[in-house]
Recover the amino acids of this structure.
C-alpha cells in the first residue's frame, strides 16, 4: 500500500505539470488584452501597457513565464493581481467559504442520497421507492441553475424562509440551501447508485448466509448488506468532490457567495489571469488529490483489492 | 441456550423425530405462472442420523432445505401447506423472532459456494466469532478465541495466524471448512449441508465429507445432506430420500437402495454411475429432461422418461407405497422394479 501510494503520488507530477502548463498557455490565447481596457473610456497609453506587461513578466517567453509560475507556486508566493491586491489574501478569504459549502454539499449527498437509496432499495417497488425514483429523476433532469433560481425564488422571495443571498460571513445556516442546490445532482445520482447496489447485494449469497446465521434483520442490513453496498457509493462521492468545487461556480454566483467560484467568475470576466491561473491550479490539485484518496480508500473498503 | 430453547418450546414430550418435514408444499409465483417446487415432501431426521436428499436441479431439494431454515425468498416463494416440526414444534407457525433464534442455535446450514456465501469484506474469524457475539453475547476477544478453536477443529492449518484473513485468501476447500466451522459454532442439533462439495475438487470432496461425518459423530447432530451425487452419500448417509419434481419418489436405508432400488428414477440414477465392472460399455443416461415445474406432467411426474410406464401412470398420481417399515416408493409398479433384481 505504501509503495502504491508513492507511485501514485509520483504519477501526479507529470499530470500537474501538464495541466498547469495548459492553463498558463490557454489564458493568453483568449481574445482581448487584459491591460488595454483598464483606462476607462479611452485606450490605455502604450507606456502603461508596456510597464504592466513588464511588471507581470508577460514580455518574457511563455516557457520562462511558466517556470516563474512554478517557482512562485512552490514558494507560495502568488504575487498580486492587476490591481495590486495580494492574490494569496484573496484566495485565503474565498477558500474557506467554498470548502465549507462543498463539505456541506458532500454531507447532504451522503446522508440524504444514501438514506433515500437504502430505503428505496430495501423495499423495491414500494411507496418510498416510487417517491425516490420520481424525485431523483426530477432533480437529474433539472439543470443546476434552474434548481438554484427556483429555490431562491420560492424560499427566499416568496416564502421568506431564507435570505435570497448569502452575507459575506457565509455562515453554516446561510449555506444550507446553496449546499443543497450544489449537492442536488450528485445526491440524486447517489440515491440511485445506492439503490441499485442494495438491490443487487440483497440477493447475494452472503446476505442469505447472514440470515441463516440467525442474525437480526437490523444486523443483516446494517452490517453485512450496507458494508458491501456502500463501496461503489463512497467511491463515487469521493471522485465527485473535485467536480463539486468547480460546480460551485454557478451556485456561488447565484447566491452571491464570495467563495472560489465567485472569485474565479469575476477574474475571468475581468481577464485577471493572476487570479484565474492559481484558482484553476488549485481546483486541479483538489481533483487529483481527492481521486488519489479515493483509490487508496477503495483498497481499505474492499479487502479483495490490495495494492502491491 | 439449548436449555432455554427447550423450555421455550416445551421439548422432550413429543414423540416424533428431532426434525420432521410433513407434507410440505412450496410454490413460486412467477410471471410465467405458478411453479410448484415442493409438492408434499415428508421426511425426518433424528439426532445422530444422516439423511441424504438426492435429486437433480429443480427437484425441490434445496427449496425444502431453505424452507426449513426460513431463508426462502418470500415472495416469490410461498409455503402453501404442511408442517416443519423441530422438537415437535411447527416452525412455520413460530413468530419470526423465535424462528431467528433457532437458526444457528438449533438448525444450521452449509451452502454450496463458500466463496460467495462468506462476506467478502470481513475476516473469516470475525464472521465465525459473530455467531458467539450475537447469539451468546460473548465478548469480542473471547469470541475470537473460540473462532480460532473452531478453525482448528475443522483443521485449518495455522488457524491462529489466519483468523484475520479474508475469504478470498483461502482455497476452495478451506473456505468450505470455514463455512462448516461457522455452522457448527453453536452446536446445532441439525446441520443442513446443501451440496457442500459440489464446487470442490474430487480429492477435497472426500476430505469435506469425512469432516462432516466426523463432526456429526462427535456432537451427535442430525445431518441433512443435499446432493445430486450418489457417489458422495454412500459412505456417510444412513438413509436416502430421492426427490423428483418436488416429491419424494423413494426413501430407503442407504444400503437397501443401493442394492435394490424400488423406483425407476432411483434405478436410473444408480445405473448412470460409472462402474469398474462395466468398463468399456456405454454409460447409461436417463432419457428426457427434468419436468417443467410450471407444467408438471399429469399422473406420475416421471412418466415421460420412465421405461416402466403403463397407461395409468399418465393419469394416476402414485402415492408413496409402503414397502417395509423404513422403505417407500412412489411407483405403481415398484414390485416389478424391485423384482428385476439386485445389481
Amino acid at each position: 500500500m505504501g509503495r502504491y501510494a508513492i507511485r501514485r503520488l509520483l504519477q501526479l507530477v507529470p499530470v500537474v505539470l501538464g495541466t498547469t502548463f495548459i492553463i498558463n498557455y490557454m489564458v493568453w490565447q483568449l481574445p482581448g488584452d487584459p491591460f488595454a481596457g483598464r483606462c476607462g473610456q479611452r485606450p490605455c497609453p502604450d507606456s502603461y501597457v508596456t510597464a504592466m506587461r513588464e511588471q507581470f513578466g508577460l514580455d518574457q517567453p511563455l516557457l520562462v513565464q511558466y517556470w516563474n509560475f512554478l517557482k512562485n507556486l512552490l514558494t507560495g508566493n502568488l504575487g498580486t493581481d492587476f490591481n495590486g491586491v495580494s492574490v494569496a489574501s484573496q484566495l485565503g478569504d474565498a477558500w474557506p467559504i467554498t470548502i465549507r459549502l462543498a463539505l456541506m454539499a458532500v454531507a447532504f449527498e451522503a446522508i440524504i442520497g444514501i438514506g433515500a437509496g437504502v430505503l428505496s432499495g430495501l423495499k423495491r417497488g414500494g411507496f418510498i421507492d416510487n417517491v425516490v425514483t420520481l424525485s431523483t429523476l426530477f432533480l437529474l433532469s433539472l439543470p443546476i441553475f434552474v434548481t438554484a433560481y427556483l429555490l431562491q425564488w420560492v424560499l427566499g422571495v416568496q416564502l421568506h424562509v431564507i435570505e435570497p443571498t448569502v452575507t459575506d460571513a457565509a455562515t453554516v445556516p446561510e449555506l444550507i440551501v446553496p449546499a443543497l442546490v450544489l449537492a442536488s445532482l450528485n445526491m440524486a445520482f447517489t440515491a440511485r447508485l445506492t439503490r441499485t447496489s442494495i438491490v443487487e447485494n440483497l440477493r447475494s449469497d452472503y446476505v442469505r448466509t447472514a440470515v441463516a446465521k440467525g442474525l437480526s434483520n437490523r444486523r443483516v442490513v446494517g452490517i453485512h448488506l450496507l458494508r458491501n453496498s456502500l463501496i461503489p457509493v463512497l467511491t463515487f462521492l469521493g471522485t465527485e468532490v473535485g467536480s463539486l468545487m468547480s460546480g460551485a461556480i454557478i451556485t456561488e454566483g447565484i447566491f452571491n457567495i464570495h467563495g472560489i467560484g465567485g472569485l474565479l467568475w469575476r477574474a475571468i470576466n475581468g481577464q485577471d489571469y493572476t487570479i484565474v491561473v492559481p484558482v484553476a491550479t488549485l481546483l486541479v490539485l483538489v481533483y487529483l488529490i481527492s481521486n488519489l484518496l479515493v483509490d487508496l480508500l477503495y483498497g481499505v473498503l474492499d479487502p479483495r483489492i490490495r495494492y502491491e | 441456550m439449548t436449555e432455554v430453547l427447550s423450555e421455550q418450546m416445551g421439548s422432550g414430550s413429543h414423540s416424533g423425530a428431532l426434525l420432521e418435514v410433513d407434507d410440505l408444499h412450496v410454490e413460486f409465483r412467477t410471471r410465467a405462472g405458478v411453479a410448484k417446487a415442493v409438492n408434499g415432501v415428508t421426511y425426518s431426521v433424528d439426532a445422530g442420523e444422516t439423511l441424504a436428499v438426492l435429486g437433480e436441479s429443480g427437484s425441490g431439494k434445496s427449496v425444502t432445505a431453505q424452507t426449513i431454515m426460513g431463508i426462502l425468498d418470500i415472495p416469490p416463494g410461498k409455503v402453501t401447506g404442511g408442517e416443519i416440526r423441530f422438537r415437535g414444534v411447527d416452525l412455520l407457525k413460530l413468530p419470526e423472532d423465535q424462528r431467528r433464534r433457532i437458526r444457528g442455535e438449533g438448525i444450521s446450514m452449509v451452502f454450496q459456494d463458500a466463496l460467495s456465501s462468506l462476506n467478502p469484506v470481513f475476516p473469516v474469524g470475525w464472521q465465525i466469532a459473530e455467531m458467539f457475539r450475537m447469539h451468546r453475547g460473548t465478548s469480542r476477544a473471547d469470541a475470537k478465541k473460540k473462532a480460532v478453536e473452531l478453525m482448528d477443529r475443522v483443521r485449518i492449518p495455522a488457524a491462529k495466524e489466519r483468523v484475520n484473513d479474508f475469504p478470498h485468501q483461502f482455497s476452495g476447500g478451506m473456505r468450505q471448512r470455514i463455512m462448516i466451522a461457522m455452522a457448527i459454532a453453536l452446536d446445532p442439533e441439525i446441520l443442513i449441508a446443501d451440496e457442500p462439495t459440489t464446487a470442490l475438487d474430487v480429492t477435497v470432496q472426500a476430505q469435506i465429507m469425512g469432516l462432516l461425518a466426523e463432526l456429526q459423530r462427535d456432537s451427535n447432530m442430525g445431518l441433512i445432506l443435499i446432493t445430486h451425487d450418489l457417489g458422495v452419500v454412500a459412505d456417510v448417509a444412513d438413509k436416502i430420500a430421492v426427490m423428483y419434481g418436488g416429491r419424494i419418489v423413494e426413501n430407503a436405508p442407504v444400503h437397501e437402495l443401493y442394492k435394490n432400488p424400488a423406483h425407476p428414477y432411483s434405478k436410473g440414477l444408480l445405473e448412470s454411475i460409472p462402474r469398474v465392472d462395466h468398463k468399456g460399455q456405454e454409460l447409461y443416461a436417463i432419457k428426457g429432461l427434468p419436468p417443467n415445474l410450471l407444467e408438471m406432467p399429469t399422473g406420475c411426474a416421471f412418466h415421460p422418461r420412465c421405461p416402466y410406464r403403463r397407461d395409468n401412470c399418465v393419469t394416476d398420481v402414485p402415492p408413496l407405497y409402503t414397502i417395509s417399515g423404513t422403505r417407500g416408493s412412489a411407483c405403481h409398479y415398484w414390485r416389478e422394479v424391485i423384482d428385476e433384481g439386485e445389481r
